[in-house]
Write a structure and sequence with these properties.
alpha+beta, 31% strand, 18 helices
């Protein structure tokens, strides 16, 4: 049996070959190291650097990424009865020389793959010195760039010339923190006879039965010769034993009356233990086990009357995707625990999302991420790690790309939540529109990866999961990759150049990126930045705003819609509000276009540090108003008012698998609460469908656009409002809210709001009173005659007077007044 011995304790760290005058020269020669970990986190734990996430500290840590580092430990080896012992690194970041007892055993050049070295002949009984020496990833990448020639990319850094997390080199939401370290587990594995070097699985459905196709690739110590060697496969109480005649063996197991795995909201998520064992007359030599699920997934890109679809079909059912892009949740991924993964994924579920797209400038996440998605029914879309750059297809990069893809497709292919492999992020778009073609000339730029290398690897190793060449991509190099009528598109003229109402100019088949910025929560902002005074333009705020002209775009994006902020508190409230309004506008619009449009993936759900960004959950894990906007706009049953050529329509969207029988009314009200017109609604919305109800002219046309509101209340959906004018032009008065704060009870405190005159855009900021407190809704309109109840989740009782007043309680009315 394979025996694994973890090597995650007793490590130290030190800078090597330090240049005179470098900050590294002042470091101790020996620094305690944590494995898994990084140099940055070890230096921070030792008190040798300030937290790079705070204030201007990022700028002080640039030298770390330009320094060589050595991790060292001593292995106390007592020998083994097994024939062979391997040293296995699940992840090394990135350019390293590994030595054991002074003998070089391997070199590494890729953060995203596993390395295995046979050390049987080098290990000695007693103490063994192990060293992993990391060169500067930055300097290595610059060297490859000099060798192959520069290629275009979206940022002035060499991330395209090394197989490492691109975002480490800085992004428009992330700091420049170029890491090094043993970032995943390391161990010794001792074995004899045979081990399972690879396991390839393909789980399919055949009527009521599940079929598990398994291919095992063995590594042996006896050239594969063993007359009694068998591969035993077991799943759901069904098993087979197949004689092993060589290094590769195939098996098939049928599971009658199998329980099918479904995405959340569509059904249950049953999983089964799939177990493989290699046996011979000495017993079990090696074993492999995973939790798997039976499902089918197709990507329907067939032609239709308006172009070409981009529809996910799960177990034969077309599914509207309500998704978000996922970036690494920390610049130092070794700090991300399973509990933190679960928190973020549950926050995604709380925002009514059903898919997370793991973006191509980050990492292939650890197994726990996908396991939790499997368990909770959250679909995953996995980019291969190419983003916003032209990538060379020559050595030394090409072989690393192939090895990395092989490793990770094998590792992730067992997850039923995985529904797409995507070749790259924006690189095909870049070739068309970002002035790449002249500087690239006749050199390679990555297309061969996306159209040949990667799809071939997926077809071989994960044949039950679709592959798509890029995001965005039209399906053909003969059609512009961001063509709305075909495939998936990104919408970035909104935010960068034009108002968010321009979302209405598009009728996409699928939007896999669109987004709008806003600052983090107040408690996160003030924990991380201590500028005096704190303003949008103060030094710490500017360093934590990585987008080009980010503050200018925030201001221009607000100007058509909201009053001008008069204070830092106003700016914070209004920019967060505008972020949510922009994304709600686009999301509800595209959902109302179902089935022409069959998915939206907002940029982005999470942040890796405290920053003004597109995220719905900030770098400290706190929900921004955008999270509440996503929760509302992605509700399984949605009521939304949309403009038409003839006026207004109420669109009812039903993403559930059951019909939605609903009734209620739509009213046009004066801000005083007087009813000017009313229309009854009674309709059945079929499952997985939408119904459009034209609104009467008396509802759709306002007598006073500045002082009237359309109020919609139908059973089974959240009450909504529709305004006839922008907030800044409304006849809003100082809010005279009647606020009743309930008694704290087991972590919850209610806030009841009522008013005799319309109050627009109420947001509670309970984190200003207790950093971990949050409210279950935001951007709430208080309509006369209707009491609105907000529930605050808080571990401690909050002061009722503070909870009901400025600056904790905000509205657009109080800014205008």
């Amino acid at each position: 049996m394979t025996i694994a011995a973890p090597l995650t304790t007793g490590w130290t760290l030190g800078a090597v070959d330090v240049a005179p005058g470098s900050p590294a020269a002042a470091l101790p020669a020996v620094i305690p190291a944590t494995v898994p970990g990084t140099v940055h986190t070890d230096l921070l734990a030792a008190g040798l650097i300030d937290d790079p996430y705070l204030d201007l500290n990022e700028l002080k840590d640039e030298w770390i990424g330009h320094t060589e580092w050595a991790y060292r430990t001593v292995i106390d080896w007592q020998g083994s009865a097994e024939e062979r012992t391997d040293l296995v690194f699940d992840g090394l970041d990135t350019v390293a020389i590994v030595t054991l007892n002074g003998v070089e055993i391997g070199r590494t050049f890729n953060q995203h793959r596993t390395y295995r070295f046979d050390v049987s002949a080098l290990l000695q009984v007693g103490e063994n010195a192990l060293e992993v020496r990391f060169a500067s990833a930055w300097e290595y990448a610059e060297g490859v760039k000099a060798q192959l020639g520069d290629l275009p990319n979206a940022y002035p850094t060499p991330f395209g010339f090394i197989r490492k997390m691109a975002a480490n080199f800085g992004w428009d939401w992330g700091p420049q923190l170029v890491t090094a370290g043993i970032w995943k587990d390391v161990r010794l594995e001792s074995w004899s006879g045979a081990r399972l070097a690879e396991v390839r699985t393909a789980l399919t459905l055949d009527g009521e039965a599940g079929v598990a196709h398994v291919t095992a690739v063995l590594e042996t110590t006896d050239a594969g010769v063993s007359a009694d060697r068998v591969l035993a496969v077991d799943i759901a109480g069904q098993g087979v034993e197949v004689p092993v005649a060589g290094s590769t063996v195939e098996a098939e197991v049928r599971v009658p009356d199998v329980a099918v795995w479904w995405p959340r909201g569509m059904g249950e998520q049953p999983r089964y233990d799939l177990t493989l064992e290699v046996r011979d007359d000495e017993g079990v030599r090696d074993s492999w086990s995973r939790r798997v699920g039976f499902r089918t997934v197709e990507l329907d890109t067939s032609e239709d009357e308006t172009g070409a679809k981009f529809t996910f079909v799960i177990n034969g059912v077309p599914l509207f995707i309500r998704g978000a892009n996922w970036i690494p949740d920390d610049c130092f991924p070794s700090r991300i625990t399973p509990e933190r993964y679960r928190d973020r994924i549950e926050q995604s579920i709380g925002a009514n999302l059903n898919l997370l797209r793991v973006w191509g400038g980050g990492i292939y996440e650890r197994d726990e991420f996908y396991d939790i998605c499997d368990e909770l029914g959250v679909l995953t879309w996995q980019d291969f790690l190419f983003a916003c750059a032209a990538y060379p297809e020559e050595e030394p990069i090409r072989s690393e790309v192939i090895a990395e893809a092989h490793d990770n497709v094998l590792r992730l292919s067992t997850h039923p939540s995985l529904v797409l492999w995507n070749g790259c992020n924006e690189n095909i778009w870049g070739w068309f529109d970002w002035n790449w073609q002249e500087p690239v000339g006749d050199r390679t730029w990555g297309l061969g990866y996306y159209t040949e290398v990667l799809p071939e690897i997926v077809a071989e190793l994960d044949p039950t999961t679709p592959y798509w060449a890029g995001s965005p991509f039209s399906g053909s190099m003969d059609v512009h990759p961001n063509e709305p009528s075909r495939g998936n598109m990104h919408i970035w003229d909104v935010w960068n150049r034009v108002d968010y109402t321009v979302y209405a100019d598009y009728a996409p088949r699928f939007v896999s990126e669109f987004g709008f910025q806003g600052p983090p929560t107040w408690s996160t902002l003030t924990r991380a930045i201590h500028d005096e005074p704190l303003t949008p333009e103060s030094p710490g705020m500017l360093l934590h705003q990585k987008a080009d002209d980010g503050n200018g775009k925030l201001a221009r994006g607000m100007a058509p819609h909201l009053p001008e902020p008069q204070s830092m508190e106003d700016w914070h409230f209004l920019t967060q509000l505008n972020q949510s309004r922009a994304i709600v506008f686009g999301t509800e619009l595209y959902r109302s276009q179902r089935p022409h449009c069959m998915g939206t993936i907002v940029w982005q759900i999470n942040d890796c540090w405290p920053v003004t960004s597109w995220a719905a959950v900030d770098g400290d894990g706190r929900r921004k108003p955008l999270w509440h906007g996503l929760r509302r706009a992605n509700a399984e049953r949605l009521a939304t008012v949309q403009p038409t050529d003839d006026g207004l329509a109420l669109v009812l969207v039903n993403d559930s698998r059951e019909p939605w029988s609903t009734d209620g009314d739509v009213r046009r009200l004066a801000f005083t609460g007087d009813v000017h017109a009313e229309q009854a609604v009674s309709v059945v919305v079929p499952a997985l469908d939408a119904v459009t109800i034209p609104l009467d002219t008396e509802i759709a046309r306002s007598g006073d656009a500045r002082a009237e509101v359309v109020s919609v209340e139908v059973s089974g959906a959240r009450p909504i409002t529709h305004l006839f004018a922008e907030d800044k032009d409304l006849d809003l008065e100082a809010p005279e809210l009647r606020v009743v704060v309930g008694v704290w009870d087991d972590g919850r405190q209610t806030v009841e709001l009522a008013a005799d005159r319309f109050v627009r855009g109420v947001v509670l900021y309970p984190d200003r009173l207790a950093p971990d407190a949050w409210v279950e809704d935001a951007d709430v309109d208080v309509v006369p005659g209707r009491t609105t109840v907000l529930t605050v989740e808080t571990a401690v009782p909050l002061d009722p007077s503070a909870l009901g007043t400025h600056p904790v309680l905000r509205s657009v009315n109080d800014v205008i007044a």
